[in-house]
């Protein structure tokens, strides 16, 4: 887990993300039939491990193929977790939706990269053979 200064001047220990197999669900359970339900069962979670609120505006979440989700004016409370789903839905304080009609995260191997609003890598999580 990498922690770098954010644009707010606070250490990004303010948002060192928790990435583990329980925090990235790259393979949607069941048959990959591209229904919105199946797409939304593919997700990544980001956890703010401090007590401070962090504004993720301009931050990005990207995969190896260059698919990118840009956070709008999203405020992540201290000690809070937000789940970013692949499909469509109504954004809430705990769930965001990329509004994609196709799967983003490769089931076998991929890398999820979180970057701050200045393009600096905050954290990455890789899975599968090509990343070992």
Automatic annotation (TrEMBL):
Q: Where are the transmembrane segments?
A: none
What are the residue boundaries of the LTD domain, all occurrences included?
A: 1-129
Top-level taxon: Bacteria
Q: What is this protein called?
A: Lamin tail domain-containing protein
Taxonomic classification, please?
Bacteria, Bacillati, Actinomycetota, Actinomycetes, Kitasatosporales
């Amino acid at each position: 887990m990498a922690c770098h200064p954010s644009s707010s001047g606070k250490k990004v220990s303010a948002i060192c993300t928790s990435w583990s197999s329980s925090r990235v669900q790259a393979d949607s359970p069941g048959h990959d039939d591209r229904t919105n339900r199946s797409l939304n069962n593919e997700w990544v979670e980001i956890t703010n491990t401090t007590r401070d609120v962090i504004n993720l505006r301009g931050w990005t979440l990207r995969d190896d193929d260059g698919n990118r989700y840009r956070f709008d004016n999203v405020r992540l409370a201290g000690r809070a977790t937000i789940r970013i789903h692949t499909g469509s839905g109504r954004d809430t304080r705990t769930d965001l939706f990329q509004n994609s009609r196709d799967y983003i995260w490769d089931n076998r191997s991929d890398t999820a990269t979180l970057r701050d609003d200045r393009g600096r890598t905050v954290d990455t999580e890789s899975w599968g053979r090509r990343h070992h």
